[in-house]
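Example protein as discussed:

>
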Amino acid sequence: MDTYSLLREFADSWALLGLVIFFLGTIVWAFRPGSTRVYRDTADIVFRNDDGPLVDEGGAGGAALSEDDK
């Protein structure tokens, strides 16, 4: 049996089985009980320091610049 045939047989059987097990393990890990709180906390990182909506003081639809910014 040459090297190509041996590697092809391995890829068709055991490597495929290993990849399927890895995929199913990843799915189980992502949807495990108790992970909802962790994922929700991670998703809310962007909004932690958000005090409220930005107020448009210029009336032109863009961000208002103060005298120091001009």
